[in-house]
From TrEMBL:
<protein>
    <submittedName>
        <fullName>DNA polymerase-3 subunit beta</fullName>
    </submittedName>
</protein>
Amino acid sequence: MILKLSKRALLSAMIFQAKIDPRYYLCGICFAPDGKLYATDGHRAFIGEHQSEDVTENIIVQIKGPRFTRFDYAEIDMDTGILTYCDEHGEGVAVAMVRKVDGRYPDINRVIPNGNDPVSEIGFNAGYLSDIEKAAKLYNSKWPGIIIRPNGNASSAIIELSNTFEKASVVIMPMRL
């Protein structure tokens, strides 16, 4: 099975995935059957899109090696465990090792806020906001804008990243001030 995703989706997911965590399944990126791509460290979650059609169940992959940034899209061959970074012409420019993680990925849809409860003030971890800026620049390097939809000052907020070709969002928990 070949999993295909864009540069902006892969690099953004790598920002928000857990690096070292006892919940080993959070150290990977989840490809869902509905075309969604998930990455979380337990405090914030990235929700993007992938272009794979053969996915029938959640597949969690962990990418080994250095982060490569000069590519257009990536293809992950699950049979061989190789990720190929491809340029705009479809030529492979670099490779990395990938391993499938056995585990059950958390249900991200449970933390996505349903409503939009306005608040007078809300606090966020500034480090998390800087990571959202990095992802926003991947989705629109010229005008990295975001839309913040708070749901009260005690439940998660959803942040939408602007792009005409792909949808992406980040769910982030507020912090008490």
